[in-house]
Write a structure and sequence with these properties.
Distance between the termini: 16 Å
Number of strands: 4
Oligomer: single chain
Order of helices and strands: HEEHHEEH
Number of domains: 1
Helix content: 55-70%
Largest sheet: 4 strands, antiparallel
Radius of gyration: 16 Å
Strand order of the largest sheet: 1-2-3-4
Length: 150
């Protein structure tokens, strides 16, 4: 039950932040927070970092994402490592949130822009952070022996 509450809360928080960005910024508007971080409203019609934007229908991207979530959920169920299960859980949360966003808008809202001088990382969102945390935890689980989940 607690996992469902966490899942719903993190997805809600991601979608809420995306809504607030859409509601308060113009498309491509940027607000400088400090010398390394800006808030920006970007519509991502592609996959990670906007790759394949304009080349693939958002319905195909949704279908692919749903298939990937199903596969990750299968790995989640089959895993007997606690850290690995948690990693899959975070990836699923991020993927589901971006799927919901794409279903609502036909694109994903990105709004976090990190940079150093003239070097900019592509804009991303909280769901992308959840996925990244999950992937880092998954990599860690390959190197750390963890207790079996009962």
């Amino acid at each position: 039950m607690i996992k469902i509450a966490i899942l719903v809360s993190l997805i809600f928080f991601d979608l809420l932040t995306k809504y607030l960005i859409q509601d308060n910024l113009f498309l491509n508007q940027s607000i400088k927070i400090n010398e390394y971080f800006d808030l920006v409203y970007v519509q991502n019609f592609g996959v990670s970092f906007g790759l394949l934007s304009g080349y693939i229908s958002h319905w195909i991207l949704i279908l692919i994402a749903v298939i990937v979530v199903i596969l990750i959920f299968y790995l989640f169920i089959k895993s007997d490592k606690q850290l690995e299960k948690l990693a899959y859980f975070f990836v699923i949360i991020g993927a589901l949130s971006n799927i919901i966003d794409r279903l609502i808008n036909s694109y994903v809202v990105d709004f976090i822009l990190l940079h150093y001088k003239d070097f900019y990382w592509p804009a991303f969102n909280l769901a992308d952070i959840y996925i990244t945390i999950g992937i880092i935890m998954l990599i860690m689980s390959f190197f750390i022996k963890s207790k079996t989940v009962k």
